[in-house]
Amino acid sequence: MSREYQARGLAVISVSLDDPADQPKVLEFLQSQRATFDNVISRHATSVRSAEEFQFDGNVPLYQLFDRTGKLAYQFRPPPFDADLENGEPVERIEARVRQLLLGG
Question: What pLDDT digit, counting tens, does each position of 35-44 carry?
Answer without folding.
Answer: 989 999 988 8
